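dumping this here before i forget
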Amino acid sequence: MSILAVVGAGPLGAAITHQASAAAIARRVVLVDDAADVARGLALDIRQAGPIAGTSTAVEGTGDPGAVVGAGVVVVADRHGKGEWRGDDGLALVARLRALNPGALILCAGASQTDLVET
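structure:
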């Protein structure tokens, strides 16, 4: 896979980004969160750990939801400081992601995101 996008720079999103980078399942992993500085900082930390983990996956963080364009898989995780995407906010996010990247597989990673999956 070329690009993996992770939406949400909370603990779950950060862990998914780190593991995806370490496993080199994509050439590029993009971490997207409204808290753009947090997403960029986490991406920098993960990128700097790459040589230790033995991976050269490109990792970047952004506050721009348009960064999901071109991703083969978009993972909906948890927002920094706000928890998992759920309810109406989660549904609006999924609709926005689908509009930005209609060909992507959208995965809901949170344990309490069953309402998103069912809808």
